[in-house]
Specification:
Rossmann fold, 2 domains, N-(1-d-carboxylethyl)-l-norvaline Dehydrogenase, domain 2
Length: 284
Amino acid sequence: MDIKNIMVIGSGLMGSGIAQVSAQAGYNVIMNDVKMEFIDKGFNSISKILDGRVKKEKITAADKDAILSRISKAPSFEDAKKADLIIEAAFENFEVKKSIFQKLDSLCHKDVIFATNTSSIPITSLATTVQRPEKFIGMHFFSPVPVMRLVEVIRGKDTSENVVAAVLDFCRKIGKTPILAGDVPGFIVNRFLCLLYNEAANEIYHGLASAEDIDTGLKLGANHPMGPVEIMDMAGVDVVYLALSSLYEMTGEERYKPSPIFGQMITENRLGRKTGRGFYDYGK
């Protein structure tokens, strides 16, 4: 399968990151979201990141212009007809994703590959939303996408081997290391990470440790490059909560039951870096 044109659904932190690394690798990228203002925000975020790379002399100004020229903006799904690979990076909710894929299924050409960036929803379940489940696959990127090297590739029950091979090849071409994960709740990495995040949140909630000391402990005691609390603030407290909630609902295991502190923080709009305050205060 020859992949040349990529459509990314969702232009937030994950979607814009996927768009950036794809354009950097030479692919034509279509950025889509429900509003043009969201797409513009994601595009501007990419531009600022590339400005930083120019200043550090990792790329030239001409490189930056070439990368941005490969990204087009599309507030509707009409341009999906041009795509060879569609990567959905929308809200972590089954019904939201179902609605997106059902609309795309009626528009796209017969060879398009549908990929979802879900961190917890079963791929086989999502594949039932389209008429061609053999073309459906999971691609779980990690945040921030331009920095994190891993992509979990998850085949559904009916995913064809040709689709798996094409997606593994695409991951390598955009500079990522893909691993194959089973279609189980949380796949590989999040089954571990969500436990780490939940334990950190519970320790803060019960006054057992501060965010700073937890992060310092994991960085210096376990050689983690970032602490779990820092990561939650970067990924979004609401995103972590949704991942935990999904795992808890799907597995029924108490260890995945979200700490009460998540509900409090979401109510107070303390969602992390994106709102200026999470477990840490970013002074916005």
